[in-house]
Specification:
Shape: globular
CATH class: Alpha Beta
Number of helices: 6
Strand content: 25-35%
Number of domains: 1
CATH topology: Rossmann fold
C-alpha cells in the first residue's frame, strides 16, 4: 500500500443539532477506504471510541459487522438509534475494555479523542478526571494492550490522528507521533499512511488546526 492517499473530505450523514458544535467526525471516505482494503463482507469492524458512529455505520453499510464502545451517553444513544445491529455498541469506558464481552475482531479503525500537551483534564475520562498528557498516552497504550487479546491473528488496526498546531497561547502538540510511539508498546507498528484531502472548501477548521491531512497509523496484532 502506498504511504499517502488523496480522498474527498465529505460528511454525508446528517447529525442532530446538539452535536453540530463538536462535529469531530472522521470523513466517511477514509473509513470506507480502509474497510475496503482490509476486510471482507461479514468481518467484524471495531471502534473503541465510537463517537458519532462513523466507523460503525459505514461498516454496516458495507455489509460488515460493526462493534464499538462509546463513553458519552448522548452519543451512544444516537449511534444505537442509527444502527441495525443495535446491541453492537456498548455504553462504557474503553479503559475497561477487558471487562466487556468483545467478539474476535477482524479490523479496527478509530480516532481517539485528542488531548493537547498542556491540558490538565483527561479526555479519556470525558474530562471529568485530572490527568497529564503522559497519563493520557499511558492509558491509550493500556487500552490497546487490552484490545490485542480480542484481535484475530493478522488483524490490522488503523488509528487516525494529527499533530495539533501551536496557537498564540498554546504550544504545538506532536500528537500523531506521540500516539504512534505509545501504541507501539502494545501493538506492532507497521507504517503511517498520510491521508490528504481534496479541495479547500472546508468549514470545520476549528477541529483540524489548519492542517489538510491526517496520519493514519497502521498496527498489526502480532
Amino acid at each position: 500500500m502506498q504511504t499517502y492517499i488523496v480522498l474527498p473530505y465529505e460528511k454525508h450523514r446528517q447529525i442532530p443539532d446538539e452535536f453540530h458544535d463538536d462535529d469531530n467526525r472522521t470523513p466517511e471516505s477514509l473509513v470506507e477506504f480502509f474497510i475496503s482494503q482490509f476486510t471482507q463482507p461479514g468481518d467484524i469492524v471495531f471502534d473503541p471510541f465510537a463517537g458519532l458512529g462513523t466507523t460503525l455505520l459505514v461498516a454496516e453499510e458495507m455489509s460488515r459487522v460493526p462493534f464499538g464502545i462509546e463513553a458519552d451517553e448522548q452519543r451512544y444513544e444516537y449511534v444505537r438509534s442509527q444502527l441495525t445491529m443495535k446491541d453492537n455498541i456498548i455504553l462504557g469506558d474503553s479503559r475497561n475494555l477487558d471487562k466487556f464481552n468483545l467478539p474476535r475482531i477482524d479490523f479496527v479503525f478509530t480516532s481517539p479523542i485528542f488531548m493537547r500537551c498542556d491540558e490538565t483534564e483527561n479526555p479519556l475520562s470525558g474530562f471529568r478526571e485530572p490527568g497529564t498528557y503522559q497519563d493520557y498516552l499511558d492509558q491509550l497504550q493500556d487500552i490497546f494492550r487490552k484490545l490485542r487479546g480480542s484481535l484475530k491473528p493478522g488483524a490490522k488496526v488503523i488509528v487516525e490522528a494529527f499533530n495539533l498546531g501551536a496557537t498564540s497561547k498554546r504550544p504545538m502538540t506532536l500528537l500523531a507521533w506521540d500516539v504512534a510511539r505509545a501504541l507501539s508498546g502494545a501493538l506492532k507498528f507497521e507504517k503511517e499512511i498520510i491521508a490528504c484531502w481534496e479541495g479547500t472548501g472546508r468549514t470545520d477548521t476549528q477541529h483540524i488546526y489548519g492542517y489538510n491531512h491526517s496520519y493514519c497509523l497502521m498496527f498489526d496484532s502480532k
